[in-house]
Amino acid sequence: MIRDRDARSRTAAHSLALACIEAGIDAARPERVVRDRLALQDDRLRVAGGRIDLDAFERVVVLGGGKAAAGVAAALERVLETRLNGGVVVTDDPTPTERVTVRDGDHPIPSERAVESARAVREAAVDAEEDTLVLAVLTGGGSALLPAPADGLALSDLQRVTESLLSASAPIGAVNAVRKHCSAIKGGQLARAAAPATVVTLLFSDVVGDDPAVIASGPTVPDPTTFADAQRVLEEYDVAPPTPVEERLDRGVAGEVAETPTAGASVFEHVRTFVLANGRTAIDAASGVASDAGFTPLVLGAGIEGEAREVAKTHAAVARESRETGSPVSPPAVILSGGETTVTVDGDGRGGPNCEFALSAARSLPEGAVLASVDTDGQDGTSGVAGALVDVETVDDEAAARALADNDAASHLGERTALLRTGPTGTNVNDLHVLVVTDTE
Fold first, then answer.
1. Would you tell me which of 28, 212, 334, 438 could form a disulfide with 427, CB atoms 3.0–4.6 Å apart?
2. How far, in Å, CA of 222 to CA of 154, rounded?
3. pLDDT in tens, 341-369
4. Among 431, 421, 439, which residue's Cα sits nearest to residue 337?
5. Can you give the C-alpha Rg of the chain in angstroms?
6. What is the DSSP track for 160-216?
7. CATH of 37-278, one of 3.30.70.1400, 3.40.640.10, 3.40.50.10180, 3.40.50.920
8. Is the distance from CB of 352 to CB of 108 less than 8 angstroms?
9. Would you list the domain boundaries of the chain?
């Protein structure tokens, strides 16, 4: 999975860090998750502990979008075989399918072809009838890959406001609050289009907390945000939206445009939701690899947030404390975490949260400790790589400080052969940090 893996495995600690990363990503791949969490038994579909009687439906279709959507669709085809009648999913990482149509989209900025693809998904939802079972597949990246501009808005309006919010380091929940109120699909509106069909939503979570209303902007679940919330997001992050967006939000606040459906709305009467995989899925698999290698795993959390370079310093401090005092875990140990750190962009360099995390941590790691930090989808920001593998010897402190100041972590780490490349992994469950602390220097 990791390119040039042998060259990166120069010590046993480096090799273990990479093994943990690969195990974490592999555990969150659609084919493995669907195999583990879904099964067809006679005419009943078991879904993560729930059961669905397929004999109650004339048609079963798959609809949705996200980076892993095609992989999930292909895995569902293998489970359901002839019981699956078709469907449409949108992705930027296509996988061959037999019954489900895979349409192209782009991430992180929505594209014109994604608009056409999203319209195809919505039209298929409208065609669903009361005796249709819709398996709604939604994974990380679904917000950008399912752009369906609301009436009066153009794709360029969505692109501009999304770019501005991302540049301002707005968290995904805030970005999605705006997206939902500029969309004809997000914020429960795909469920509205599919009603009165039965909708079973299958989620691969790329958000901290696994809130279904945030994952892919919640096309099939109640929306807790309002037009007023969307306005507040733009004000908080000092984003001046395109005039059509501003006017739509104003009209929404004034009650001239219908709100997205909320909890208790009739469109959700036949909707069920299951989170099939998340950051904990990857962490648990990495933890198992660490244990098998004789290292004690310590999970700091699956919902780590904050500025990447600052959170990294805390991880490095835990490693130093572990080495010096045996607390909070005695070496040999593997310290694990996941979540979604962010980067405030002040420079014009190349990088992403995981590259900045690794570069910042490397400046203060103890001797013998090794850190791997990756985005599980294989794409860390603008770096062009999944992340990085570092130790205290990786960086030149003054040069590293300059690279961090210019948000150019990937360039600095690339010069030191510390970048990790996987290509698209077929999944997306946020970041994974693996910090190996050996018991001797």
1. 28
2. 25
3. 999 888 999 999 999 999 999 999 999 99
4. 431
5. 22
6. HHHHHHHHTT--HHHHHHHHHTTBSSTTTHHHHHHTTSEEEEEEE--STT--TTTGG
7. 3.40.50.10180
8. no
9. 5-26+280-437, 37-278
Q: Please, what is the Cα angle at 239 between 172 and 106, to 5 degrees? A: 50
Q: What is the DSSP string of 97-121?
A: -SSSEEEE--SSS--HHHHHHHHHH
What is the C-alpha separation between 139 and 34, in angstroms, rounded? 13
Contact 89, 70 (CB under 8 A): yes
CB neighbour list of residue 331: distance below 8 Å, 6 or more residues apart:
322, 323, 437, 438, 439
With beta carbons less than 8 A apart as the criterion, state whether 252 and 150 touch: no
Under 8 Å between Cβ of 276 and 204: yes
Measure the CA–CA gap between 403 and 408, rounded to whole angstroms: 5
Q: C-alpha 23: how far from its chain's center?
A: 17
Question: Is-contact 184 252, C-beta < 8 A?
Answer: no
pLDDT band at 306 (very low <50, low <70, confident <90, very high): very high
Neighbours of 148 (CB within 10 A): 25
Nearest to 176 by CA among 138, 129, 202, 119: 138
Beta pairing class for 38-41 and 44-47:
antiparallel
CATH architecture assignment, domain 5-26+280-437: 3-Layer(aba) Sandwich (3.40)
What are the tokens at 178? 């705006």
How would you class 6 by CB atoms within 10 Å of its CB: exposed for 0-12, middle for 13-18, buried for 19 or more? exposed
The token pair that represents 352 in the structure block:
């992403």
- Measured CA to CA, the distance from residue 404 to residue 427 in angstroms comes to 28
Q: Are 65 and 121 in contact (CB under 8 A)?
A: yes
The pLDDT tens digits for 256-303 are 999 999 999 999 999 999 999 999 999 999 999 999 999 999 999 999
Q: Which residues pair with 274 in a beta bridge?
A: 202
